Amino acid sequence: MTSATLLSPTTMPPEPTSGTAAPLSRARQRGYIRTILILDTVILVLAVIGGYFARFGGDEPRGSDIPYVIVGPVLVLAWLASLKALRCYDHRVLGYGADEYRRVSAASLRLAGGVAIAGYLADVGVSRGFLGISFAVGTVGLVIARFAARKRLHWSRSRGAGWSRRVLAVGDTAHVLELVHTLRREPYAGYQVVGACIPDALLAPVPQRLGDVPVLGSFRAILDAAAAINADTVAVTASNELTATRLRRLGWQLEGTGIDLVLAPALTDVAGPRIHTQPVAGLPLIHVEAPEFRGARKLIKSFVDRALSFTALTALLPLLAVIALAIKLNSRGPVIFRQIRVGRGGREFGVYKFRTMVVNADALLAELAAKNETDGLMFKIRKDPRVTRVGRVLRKWSLDELPQLANVLFGHMSLVGPRPPLPSEVARYDGDVARRLLVKPGITGLWQISGRSDLSWEDGIRLDLYYVENWSLAADLTILWKTVGAVVRTRGAY
User: Fold this and answer.
1) C-alpha distance across the termini of the chain, in Å
2) In what order do the strands lie in the sheet with 260-263?
3) pLDDT for 366-407, tens place per residue?
4) In 10 A of CB 185, how many CB atoms?
5) Structural domain 164-268, CATH architecture
6) Which one of 36, 132, 336, 440 has the lowest number of neighbouring Cβ atoms within 10 Å?
7) In whole angstroms, how far apart are CA 432 and each of 272, 450, 466?
8) Do residues 471 and 430 make contact, with C-beta atoms less than 8 angstroms apart?
């Protein structure tokens, strides 16, 4: 295999400007890891100092076997070593996904357990209060600091300035295009497809592109293609020509090159906790757990929904009263608008909202049908003339949906879930869309934090189905937290 294969008319290399891209990407990667290490060190030093002053108030502790001027630095170094041992500085887990936070928490908990056991066995007199405060503050601080660093990284990536992986996609045309589309849906993940290699039979006698991704050659040119575009990752998708033997040899060829090998199976929209890998006779079997629609976690979700909705309704009573008065003074008609929606299992229920439109809004719908700005089954217009002056304010800040807390309390809805559909929408469901009805609809959800009304029908359905398949209590809490930011930004609210 030579570079001549790559430079044939079929496999024209990309623009020469990419020559420094990979070194720049790796420099940014190393810089980000250094930043994380510095942040961790500062957080741990502050946590240990804070634990000392919180426990002893600055006084010299009595009865200590080891001076705390030694205990503190040793604890910080041991903590950093524990983080390193659990690969908390591995570029493969930094910047995206929950695995980074899990590793940080696990490293802290393991060290805390190890220190407790070692102190007991060695009978060393170190204050448990000092250790408890230091570990609690340090663990929370590490997670918050990494969250802040990740937000900064995502901001940089959205502007093309952050550390991202340069990916050479390998596989059949359809699977490569699907990989490109999937990775571009999540730009924050940091995977930038900069070239592709496809089977010989699909190559034309002239340079090809898959969308805006250049085709650099066949599977025989993978190493040359990766070198030409300075790729640091080779992502292999499905192809009949990529046998197990060829894939294994590709892994051998990439050894020592600094290029990661990533396998992208034809399996999408499955969250990490549902996937488990089990090697059998050298064959990695991927186990995909079925979605959980019953059981203890659903009971806990239902309890949390009702408890939080009751608390929120009680706390927000004054605000609800003010909104009700504003609606009444602004336009004639009822304060609360009740509309039939479809919930779990196809059961209909009345969803409650503050009225934001004139009372004859439904009668005016036919006149406005031609102005619909969305595709699919929904109807949305940015400047809907049926919306009242107060209604525009309520919609902008999503205050019109607060009465749905009563729906959650009654068990019709959940705090987090798919958007509650109209019966007319459900009647036109086809294919997989009906799976949205396997769980309770929610006041908020992935659609709420991903653009709301700015989303297309297809994107909204994709997000709803992803939630149905992969929901978890941790994901619900994350969505609730992100909903606050989505409401404040008001993007897609009209």
Assistant:
1) 58
2) 208-210, 213-217, 191-197, 165-170, 233-236, 260-263
3) 666 655 556 555 666 667 778 889 998 998 888 999 999 999
4) 11
5) 3-Layer(aba) Sandwich (3.40)
6) 336
7) 22, 21, 12
8) no
DSSP letter, residue 345:
G
Write down the mean pLDDT value for the chain: 85
Q: What is the CA radius of gyration of the chain?
A: 28
Check if the beta carbon of residue 230 is closer than 8 Å to that of residue 258: no
Q: Do residues 215 and 208 lie in contact, with contact meaning Cβ atoms separated by under 8 Å?
A: yes
Indicate the SS3 state at residue 236. Answer: strand
Question: What angle in degrees, to the nearest 10, is found between the helix axes of 296-315 and 317-330?
Answer: 60
State the Cα–Cα distance between residues 313 and 468, nearest whole angstrom.
26
Q: How many Cβ atoms sit within 10 Å of the Cβ of residue 160?
A: 9
Residue 17 pLDDT > 50, yes or no? no
Return residue ranges of the chain for CATH 3.40.50.720: 164-268
**Span 12-17, mean pLDDT?**
38
263-269-271 Cα angle (round to 5)? 80
Q: Whose CA is closest to 447, among 457, 433, 437, 434?
A: 457
Predicted confidence at residue 291, as pLDDT, reads 78
Q: Which of 177, 96, 104, 103 is nearest to 135 (CA)?
A: 104
| Token pair 């009654």: residue | 410
- Rounded CA separation 86/215 (Å): 38
- Which pTM does this prediction carry? 0.72
Mean pLDDT across the stretch 354-363? 79
pLDDT at position 351, please? 96
If you write DSSP's letter for every residue of 256-316 in order, what string do you get?
A: TTT-EEEE--S--S--GGGEEEEEETTEEEEEEPPP--SSHHHHHHHHHHHHHHHHHHHHT
CB distance 169 to 182 below 8 Å:
no
Longest alpha-carbon distance in the chain: 84
Asked whether residue 1 carries a pLDDT value surpassing 50, the answer given is no
Note whether 455 and 463 are within 8 A (CB).
yes
Q: How far apart are CA 462 and CA 431, in angstroms?
A: 13
Tokens of 86: 């659990």
Q: What's CA 163's distance to the chain center, in Å?
A: 18
Find tokens 């404040």 and name the residue.
488
